[in-house]
Amino acid sequence: MGIYTIIILEFLLISSSILLFFKFRKVLGLAPLYLFLGAVRYLQALSGTMVSITVFDDLIIYPISIIIFSGLVFAVLLIYIKEGAASARALIFGIIFSNLILSALFGIMHMGSLVDINSTFAFLIDDKYFITGSILLLLDFLWLVIIYQFLVSIINKKYFFFILFISLLTVFTFDAFVFNITLYWGNVRFYNLLVGNIVGKFFAAFVFSFLLYLYLKYIDKEESSTSFVANQDRGVFSILKYEKKYLKLKSEKQELKKSLTSQLETSLNNISGGFISLDANWCYTFVNKKAAELLGRSPETLLGKHIWTEFPEGVGRSFYKAYYKAVETQETVYFDDYYEPLDKWFENRIYPTPDGLTIYFADITEKKNTDEKNQKLLSLIETSDEFIGLATLDGKPIYLNANGRKLVALEKEEELPDSIAGFFPEDYRENIQTEHFSAIFKTNKWTGEAAFKNFKTGELIPIEMSRFLIKDSETSEPIALGIVAKNITERKEAEEKLKNSELLFRRLTSNVPVGIFQSDKEGFCNYVNDEWLEYAGMSFEQAMGFGWTDAIHPEDQERVRQQWQQCILNAKEFISEFRFKTKEKITWLSVKAVGTFDANNKLYGYIGVALDVTERKNAEEQVKRSQIYLENIINNIGDPVFVKDAESKLVIVNNAFCSIFDLERDAVIGRTLVEHVSPEEQESFLKIDKQVIETGVENVNEETLTVTGKETRMISTKKTRFVDGNGTKFLIGIIRDITERKKTELELKKYRNNLEELVKVRTEEVNSKNEELQRMNNLFVGRELKMKELKNIIKELKLKNDN
């Protein structure tokens, strides 16, 4: 009989025996299967290395040992899947315990020399091989269950064969490495034994996985499919300990976490800005509604997608670089940027985490495109129509409206109590004197929660109340007490129901990298997170109630109070920017709060987000100061100064420029003004503008300027090009009126021509006189010569006479 025939028969015997014993477990129980597995384990220790084959020329495989070992692991995995952790645990401990007893028995018999070991085939067992294999077998069993349960928890059930194969292959490979390193490290055949063992166990893993898959799917399928897909909530260490209570708590925790996450998502979906989160692989993990709207997509189409695959046009842009900078430095990045595909400006806040990025961005296009202007103060509304009452300064009621009477069950004609205290339960009346009146006469107002009593039933009605002094408009002297209250029964009931979920919400938002707060609709704060406290520089207790208002800069407090009350009156979102002031710093915040509603869709409070925008505010203030400074400078320049865009439309002019055209600045900005000059000048001006814009070469030109209805002026115009940080081209020009200089030059030229003519005439006259003088001179000289000649003749005659 060939060796391969023996291997096939051994495999069929062991696998079929295991499956038959297990198939009839309901009749026989699991004991026969346990005994069979113990026996084959003994057979492995006895004859595991007796039979070997060589493959690929030099790789050594022990097929009997591999088949028996694989069958044991196969059986443990089958029992774990179908019978659970307890049965698998009993099998594992049974096999290990029996192996330890056999090991001890062999050791005792060997030391006592009770039998001739060399002559008794039953004890031809290598102690080191047997003990190492037994210990390793325990580790293999535990490792198998851990790998299997982990894969089941993360891989879809349709890949069940793959789960079985990977589980067995991982354990078989682990066993091959540890077993061969322990027993054969340093042996000349170590490499051949190790690789041969791995090759053999790879085929064993595939065959036993396939066999187990077929058995579970087609043969032993009468039980619930839950065992097949292993969807029981087992932990990876359930083979050692399985606690139902722990699993139940874990499941409840997951449900609570899911509920809390849903609340946070709802809150983030209601904020005005975009809010997204990315994982370490640049894939979307959360996209709120506003972000999806701004990106022109739905959240569902983005979740799990790669950001640069979905928006390749963003690669290389400034926010692309900012995202990577935040990841590399693990520091928060703040910046404003223009996104050309959407033609919008966005304020971006990038918060890095070890797991990715959280990004908040808001559309600030309107703020960028409009001038900073002071908002008009909102009208103040301090009263509510639910309960309105008046009382004397000593507390005697004098008026109560219909809604107030209805609230406390007083008929229209029924007399009011003698004192305000009559509206309250007896155990609260002392507070009216010690707390209410004291606060009213010190600060003019008391606000808080209390309870009215129903005059018919005696039941208590929770209220939110404001009591204040009504003063004479002329003398400012107090004349009465005003009371405004409203029924908050529904809110109180809702608060009670939300108490537990609120606590979970606070835990979740405590470390969110933006300020988060929660209050009732009057601004009575009941929660702020750590980031908010960092902005405000106060403790949690100090921020509660209306204590948070102490953090607002004194110059902003009245404005914020009016905005909040207007928000309440119109049941709208609260959106504002204001400052927090601490001893160390002043922080500008951009705050958005949205309403929270009860089951009847009635507003009962607000939840909001606060972002630190100090850097942006400082930058805007600097720009504003720079703009004012620049305007003052150019308006004090005597020569006309102007700036044009690429279409020759004026964007900046000074006072001197407006004076040339005798127009107001509003009538100049945005226009070319070519219609105010002659057609020849229009063509020249626009031609030079275009040339300078396109080439960037400076131009200085003397030209005429004929403004409609005015005289023609001579001007010298210097035009240069300016390119801003966004690549936008502008034309900067300076005009100098040279009309008077040109007139002077013409006069000088005229005088110079007249002088030249006069010089010419005078020169001709002088030349004439010189010629006449020359003639006279020549005449005199001739006469002198003749006189001299006569004198010589006379002298000669006289000498002759004397002789």
UniProtKB/TrEMBL annotation:
Residues 446-500, 572-625, 698-750 form the PAC domain. The keyword Kinase applies. It comes from the Bacteria. PROSITE patterns: PAC (PS50113), PAS (PS50112). Signal peptide: none annotated. The chain crosses the membrane at residues 6-22, 59-81, 88-109, 129-152, 159-186, 198-216. Residues 741-772 form a coiled coil. Keywords: Coiled coil, Kinase, Membrane, Phosphoprotein, Transferase, Transmembrane, Transmembrane helix. This is histidine kinase.
